[in-house]
């Protein structure tokens, strides 16, 4: 249950509203997936999520990347192995603690993130341009409020960046 504003009356989300949000999530995930489709993007969605973390944060430790993605460290190790082999990522060691493995995106990895972001933003623009400016503004305001509700939860940052 959720209390609206200062009202004393509890208001539950209707099944119709819940379904609309489920459909929107599915549609937005489709936009994210289509942004990596095609012969010229040679990474998987999980690999892209790691590259996006590195693009946003710069050089990070493997454990920081795992926390940002909401996955186990062993998962990051496997993703990094594949991205290292394909030339999208560079491994290093922390200068103050050589046992800490660091990850950094290469120029090739950054180019993939830029390309995918451009595709995704292009598709979102085509969709949003079909709304009138007031609808678009209202929708964006609602999405910002939803993001604020999710902020601080276990939602991985890299997932939210896919939906930007």
Q: Your description of this structure?
A:
By secondary structure, this protein is mainly alpha-helical. It has a single domain (43-162), classed as Arc Repressor Mutant, subunit A (Orthogonal Bundle). 61% of the residues lie in helices and 10% in strands. The protein has helices at residues 15-34, 45-57, 62-69, 73-85, 107-128, 133-150, 157-162; strands at 2-3, 10-11, 60-61, 89-93, 101-105. The protein has a three-stranded antiparallel β-sheet. The chain has a two-stranded antiparallel sheet with strand order 1-2. The chain is globular. The protein starts with a strand and ends with a helix. This is MarR family transcriptional regulator. One of its GO terms (molecular function) is DNA-binding transcription factor activity. Residues 14-148 form the HTH marR-type domain. It comes from Rhodococcus opacus M213.
Précis, in short:
This is MarR family transcriptional regulator. With about 160 residues, the protein is mainly alpha-helical. The chain has helices at about 15-35, 45-55, 60-70, 75-85, 105-130, 135-150, 155-160, and strands at about 1-5, 10, 60, 90-95, 100-105.
User: What percent of the residues sit in helical stretches (DSSP H or I)?
Assistant: 55-70%
Shape designation: globular
Described by strand count, sense and barrel closure, the largest sheet is: 3 strands, antiparallel
* CATH fold node name: Arc Repressor Mutant, subunit A
Strand order of the largest sheet: 3-5-4
Structural category: mainly alpha
Tell me the distance between the termini: 28 Å
User: What is the CATH homologous superfamily assignment?
Assistant: Winged helix-like DNA-binding domain superfamily/Winged helix DNA-binding domain
Assign the CATH architecture.
Answer: Orthogonal Bundle
The CATH top-level class label: Mainly Alpha
Q: Beta fraction of the residues?
A: 5-15%
* Cα-based radius of gyration, to the nearest Å: 19 Å
Mean pLDDT: 86
Helix-strand pattern: EEHHEHHEEHHH
Ranges where pLDDT stays below 50 over 5 or more residues in a row are: 154-164
Number of strands: 5
Q: What is the count of distinct domains?
A: 1
Number of helices: 7
Domain HTH marR-type: 14-148
Protein name: MarR family transcriptional regulator
GO molecular function: DNA-binding transcription factor activity
Organism: Rhodococcus opacus M213
């Amino acid at each position: 249950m959720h209390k609206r504003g200062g009202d004393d009356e509890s208001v539950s989300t209707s099944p119709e509203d819940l379904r609309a949000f489920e459909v929107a999530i599915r549609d937005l995930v489709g936009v994210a997936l289509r942004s990596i489709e095609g012969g010229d993007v040679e990474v998987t969605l999980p690999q892209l999520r790691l590259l996006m973390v590195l693009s946003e944060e710069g050089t990070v430790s493997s454990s920081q990347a795992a926390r940002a993605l909401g996955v186990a460290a062993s998962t990051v190790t496997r993703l990094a192995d594949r991205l290292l082999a394909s030339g999208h990522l560079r491994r290093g060691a922390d200068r103050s603690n050589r046992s800490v493995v660091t990850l950094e995106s290469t120029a090739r990895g950054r180019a993939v993130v830029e390309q995918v972001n451009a595709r995704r933003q292009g598709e979102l623009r085509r969709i949003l341009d079909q709304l009138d400016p007031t609808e678009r503004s209202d929708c964006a305001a609602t999405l910002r409020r939803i993001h604020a509700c999710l902020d601080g939860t276990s939602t991985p940052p890299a997932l939210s960046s896919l939906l930007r």
